[in-house]
Amino acid sequence: MATPTPLQAFSGVPKAPATEKQSIVDGEKMTGAQALVRALEDLGVKDVFGIPGGAILPVYNAINQHTKFRFVLTRHEQAAGHAAEGYAVATGKVGVCIVTSGPGATNVVTAIADANMDSIPMVVITGQVGVGAIGTDAFQEADIVGITYPVAKHSYLVTNAQDVPRVLAEAYYIAGSGRPGPVVVDLTKTAQNGQMYYSWPQRMILPGYNPTTKAHGHVLSDAAKLFSQSYRPVLYVGGGAVRSNAGKQVKELADLTGAPIVTTLPARGIVPDSDPKVLGMLGMHGTIAATGAVQRCDLLVAIGSRFSDRVTGRLDSFAPAARVIHIDIDPAEIGKNRQPDVPIVGDVAEVLDDLIPEIKRQQAIHSKPNLKPWWAQINEWREKYPTTYDEPQDAPVDGSLSPQWVVEQLSKNADPETIWVAGVGQHQMWASQLIDFEHPHSWISSGGLGTMGFGLPAAIGAKVGSQREFNGRKPVWLIDGDGSFQMTSEELATALLDHTPIKIAIINNSVYGMVRQWQTLFFDHHYSATSLNDGENRDDIVDVPDFVKLAEAYDCVGMRAFTKDEALEAIKKANAINDRPVLIDFRVWKDAMVWPMVPAGASNDEVAYRPGVRPLLSPAAQAKAAAGSTGNSVAAADAA
């Protein structure tokens, strides 16, 4: 028998009379809606994103010119959630958004799921119909608690005004502590309109919620011993290390042990790319050096990472000879995909602070392993298989840019303090490969969920965060695809009217680029439903939409570039404009592909540097792959 969702179960419980006597009389008398605004202020929240609606109007009525936080009005609830995500990643603080019930709440579910996958701290406050109307299919009623339970860290249904400040305090704490994540507060109109007595601070009631931050037992000495026995170690660093602000500790560990650093997509920049120990990103579109190092290592130290399929490829062939140390604050991640030899539950920064002295003690007793042969192999990969790209072929007369070249120029000409945001697709991979990341928290992208449309609202949130925490001195560049951008392009209005002058580079290839790449490689060039025709300049279709006119319609600056000279001039102008958003429509080669690439479901040993070039396979295995006998996906990639 199916178990009812929390809201379904609640609807079957007899409701208390609306005139229930208030038994708590200590504190200042106010409504639940006023208490919510006051609680956000007392929590230190400085910026909130959202859209009003009928079921959340009492809260919006309590927001006025005296409210201590800045409210940013977005144009879509999903965008409010993504903006809160961008703000959280850029600042390290908990992002907050407030939306209404029903479709307002369901619209933000995508952002909640995105934040959950990428461990982003966020509090999402949704309106809900009155207690008496729950379960009656009232106007704009939806079981948001039941809907969000699988994709949120925690969800609350608030029916009593007196509970509002306590629930807000708990939600904020849960979102930002332990493994960060989104917490939903579904606020009934009964609770918003009810009278209560406000006091602060609130006593939280969280039995059983005690995240482990310090390592226990002998795990630190066990891990240190593995380092002393390893001649091919690798530090595999994920987004959890970024959330823990552990960049300093990761670098110290690499310097102490001599181990190279490879990162997942969310961890780009945790240690500066200029550090010679940083090999870049590993996995499906990672560097040959990073992927090769992991495949050949004898010790894999997973630091705040979760062995995602985009990293591991075929799991049973991932780092086959490696013993594994896994450090993560979430015990559910330990052993979920790969069983570790040394499991360490705890906050990454705290664990490394304790592990590093233990390694020093081991090194004082035992000689430090000789890693020169290991680095010789790594440097050979780096030298033979650097990150390169092809220039456009059969370019039209009016020009067609290499998208990778555009990303390179954006990076070379940017302020070193720039916060980079990306949508999802080929442009996202090129940005992660080609931008020089020198600072943590300078890269914001949708990793686990891969949400197209994430970029523009996340960039707005990042800019609000830059204005709040860094006096606006950190510029925000959004690198987006024409397909991804069109999913939330209405947020140009938010960017202009709320004074967040972001800079937008649209890598316009007129197709859904990553899908087209897969269709080229694995679906016999059958380009079903991937042509957007938005920049084709065909006789029958002219730029639908025209991104320059679209930008100008929102009173933003719009530019277009077909050639390298035009592109460099546009980038120069964009960097000089700081009073309004700037959009550049870069016309790029539609058949450009992201390389290296591991075909989905294949072993990372089969990574293709280019079609037919598989550096991690033996010559015999390469010949076999080229003949198509190792699998259709491999053969298709080689034949493309």
From TrEMBL:
The keyword Amino-acid biosynthesis applies. Belongs to the TPP enzyme family. Residues 1-20 are annotated as: Disordered. NCBIfam families: acolac_lg, PRK07789.1. One of its GO terms (cellular component) is acetolactate synthase complex. SUPFAM superfamilies: DHS-like NAD/FAD-binding domain, Thiamin diphosphate-binding fold (THDP-binding). It catalyses: 2 pyruvate + H(+) = (2S)-2-acetolactate + CO2. Residues 423-586 form the Thiamine pyrophosphate enzyme TPP-binding domain. It comes from Bifidobacterium thermophilum. This is Acetolactate synthase. Residues 30-145 form the Thiamine pyrophosphate enzyme N-terminal TPP-binding domain. Keywords: Amino-acid biosynthesis, Branched-chain amino acid biosynthesis, Magnesium, Metal-binding, Thiamine pyrophosphate, Transferase. One of its GO terms (molecular function) is magnesium ion binding. Binds 1 Mg(2+) ion per subunit. Pathway: Amino-acid biosynthesis; L-isoleucine biosynthesis; L-isoleucine from 2-oxobutanoate: step 1/4; Amino-acid biosynthesis; L-valine biosynthesis; L-valine from pyruvate: step 1/4. Residues 221-355 form the Thiamine pyrophosphate enzyme central domain.
